[in-house]
Amino acid sequence: MYDETEQLQHARNGNHAAFRELYNAHVTPLFRFLKQFSADRDEVQDWVQRAFIKAYERLDTFDGRSRFSSWLFRIGINEMKTDRRREMLAPVVSDPEVEELPVMTPDDFHWKEVMGNWLYELDAIKRMVFLLYEVEGYSHAEIASMLNIGESTSRSILSRTKQWLRNKWQSEEKSV
Q1: How far apart, in whole angstroms, are the C-alpha atoms of residue 82 and residue 47?
Q2: Which of 57, 85, 129, 137 is most buried, with most CB under 10 Å away?
Q3: pLDDT for 104-146, tens place per residue?
């Protein structure tokens, strides 16, 4: 496992190369996670960039009780949520140039892609908990901290999400 203690200390002392090492170690996982919440690559890149800028500006507030990646993911999630709140408040303007994407059926994809599509059916909190736990490997305590929910809530959401996915899988197998 990557030990970033030294890089964190050097970065806190203003060493830009040390922060660059932290950036290089965490940019891909953060981007991969946040892209699950937007099809717009530029939007996701903006969230990631703002997360790293805020992390750099607030590096002295990182107390080390959690992993740096947990703290950074929380900042990234907050950037995404802030944008989503702004979008909800913005007036809706339709663009006649934009075509709607065709609806795909499970037969159009391999099972991995089908599973990915099912994840998009989940609301954001369920998708975040599932991906943070099952894909990114965070503990329920870390997820609770990132999402401002209780640890038991994280466990409950994950359990319900897994059951929902099992039900989708079983119903899909019966129809194939």
Answers
A1: 10
A2: 129
A3: 444 444 455 666 678 878 888 998 999 899 888 899 999 999 9
Q: C-alpha angle with apex 46: 41 to 49, nearest 5 degrees? A: 125
Domains delineated in the chain:
1-92 (1.10.1740.10), 103-176 (1.10.10.10)
Residue from 48, 46, 62 nearest 4 by CA:
62
Distance set, CA 9 to CA 25, 30, 111, 162 (Å) = 16, 21, 44, 39
- Which residues have CB under 8 Å from 89's CB, separation 6+? none
Contact 98, 58 (CB under 8 A): no
Total residue count of the chain as it appears in this document:
176
- The pTM (predicted TM-score) of the whole model is 0.66
Q: Which helix (H) or strand (E) holds 42?
A: helix 41-57
DSSP letter, residue 135: I
Residue 4: count of CB within 10 angstroms of its CB:
17
Angle at 168 between CA 165 and CA 173, to 5 degrees: 125
